[in-house]
Amino acid sequence: MAQTVDAGQGLVEALHADGPAPGHAKELMLFGRFVGSWDVAWTGIDASGREADRRGELHFGWVLGGRAVQDVWIVPGRGEPGEGQPPLAFHGTTIRFYDRALGAWRSTWVEPVNGRVRRFIGRPAGEEIILLSDEENPQLRWRFTEITSDAFRWRSEISRDGGQAWAFNEDMRLTRRPQH
Predict the structure, then answer these.
(1) Angstrom distances, CA of residue 16 to CA of 19, 35, 60, 63
(2) pTM: predicted TM-score of the whole model, two decimal places
(3) What is the DSSP letter of 61?
(4) Cis bond leading into 124, ω under 30°?
(5) What is the tens place of the pLDDT at every residue in 4-14?
(6) pLDDT for 143-166, tens place per residue?
(7) CATH 2.40.128.20 fits 7-176, yes or no
(8) Residues forming beta bridges with residue 176, ordered by sequence position
(9) Where are the domains positioned within the chain?
(10) Distance in angstroms (rounded) separating the CA atoms of residues 134 and 141
């Protein structure tokens, strides 16, 4: 007889994992080291071309049997003025997994507030992590830099010339929230 599970809890229980899947923990820790909750200080360009600042939140976790890392980005954060109001607000998720055949990470960003979906390929580059999406114009490059156990910087850059030159798009400074 099938067990009855609360629909919301069933999804959470099936999605969540306690840690990386055995056998590939080293590769999985490229993004696994970010598991936890973070405060976000976001800077970007508003519709008039001026710099804008927002505060938000970021949550990383293990999913899909520990084979992937998922995050949820919310800027402005829940309960903050402007939450969920485009174009400067976003509330989206990225699912990332290490593709052994490719030797890199596949990453897909889904963000319904602004109707965006983007696929990236990610790799370590020295002390940074670089994710590149070149399937649409403009190309996007996301960089995780200045990584420590309690902070990192995320920077988005765009290219309209096939990756020859990159321009600032967004910048976030992230600080890990204390664990309870």
Answers:
(1) 9, 12, 11, 5
(2) 0.89
(3) E
(4) no
(5) 556 567 888 88
(6) 999 999 999 999 999 999 999 999
(7) yes
(8) 38
(9) 7-176
(10) 8
pLDDT in tens, 56-115: 999 999 999 999 999 999 999 999 888 888 877 889 999 999 999 999 999 999 999 999
Q: Which amino acid type is present at position 76?
A: P
Of 83, 109, 87, 85, which is closest to residue 96 (Cα–Cα)?
A: 109
- Angstrom distance (rounded) from CA 74 to CA 47: 19
Q: Tell me the three state secondary structure of residue 64.
A: helix
Q: What is the dihedral of CA 149, 155, 156, 158, to 10 degrees?
A: -140
DSSP 5-54: --HHHHHHHHHB-SSPPTT-HHHHHHHHTT-EEEEEEEEEE-TTS-EEEE
